[in-house]
């Protein structure tokens, strides 16, 4: 009986010691928007609009085929607190530079959402910085 009680106490302690961001708080909203996101991701494939991602010193360079406006997010899977957002506005050559100052090294996911020629796009890629 004592061993069972100790087991239950250990499980309770472990459950309450997990970080608060172990699950997605916006699960329901993302489920409702899944079709819209899927359409945007498919549009990238149909139009061959996948941007080129290059690492140049202390920045990430994104090269788009055409003029693009939107947002870029660097998402850290292990910590929501480290996520960063940037505004995308391409120059004349379709280039956008995102600074990597004060961003820890490790695994990141780049989420790009942009509009180009009145079409909406969504592209995600995992990278190691």
Estimate the helix proportion, in percent.
Answer: 25-40%
Q: What fraction of residues sit in β-strands?
A: 35-45%
In which order are the strands of the major sheet placed? 4-3-6-7
Q: What is the total tally of β strands?
A: 7
Shape: elongated
Write the element-wise H/E pattern from the N-terminal end onward.
HHHEEEEEEE
Unreliably modeled segments: none
- Between the first and last Cα atoms, what is the distance in angstroms? 51 Å
Mean pLDDT: 86
Query: Number of DSSP helices?
Result: 3
The biggest sheet amounts to: 4 strands, antiparallel
Task: Give me the secondary-structure category.
Answer: alpha+beta
> How many whole angstroms does the radius of gyration measure?
20 Å
Summarize the structure.
Strands 4-3-6-7 form a four-stranded antiparallel sheet. It is an alpha+beta fold and 129 residues long.
What key attributes describe this structure?
129 residues, alpha+beta, four-stranded antiparallel β-sheet, 37% strand, elongated
Protein described:
- The protein has 129 residues and is α+β, with helices and mostly antiparallel strands.
- The protein is built from 3 helices and 7 strands, in the order αααβββββββ.
- It has helices at residues 2-16, 27-32, 34-46; strands spanning 52-56, 59-63, 69-75, 84-89, 95-99, 107-116, 119-128.
- The strands form 2 sheets. Strands 4-3-6-7 form a 4-stranded antiparallel β-sheet. The chain has a 3-stranded antiparallel β-sheet with strand order 1-2-5, with no helix packed on it.
- It is elongated and about 70 Å long.
């Amino acid at each position: 009986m004592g061993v069972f009680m100790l087991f239950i106490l250990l499980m309770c302690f472990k459950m309450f010691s997990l970080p608060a961001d172990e699950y997605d708080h916006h699960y329901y909203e993302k489920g409702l928007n899944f079709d819209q996101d899927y359409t945007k991701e498919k549009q990238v494939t149909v139009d061959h609009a996948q941007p080129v991602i290059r690492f140049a010193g202390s920045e990430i360079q994104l090269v788009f085929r055409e003029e693009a406006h939107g947002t870029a997010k660097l998402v850290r899977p292990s910590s929501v607190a480290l996520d960063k957002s940037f505004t995308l506005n391409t120059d004349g050559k379709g280039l956008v530079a995102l600074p990597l100052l004060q961003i820890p090294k490790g695994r990141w996911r780049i989420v790009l959402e942009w509009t180009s020629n009145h079409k909406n796009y969504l592209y995600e890629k995992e990278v190691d910085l």
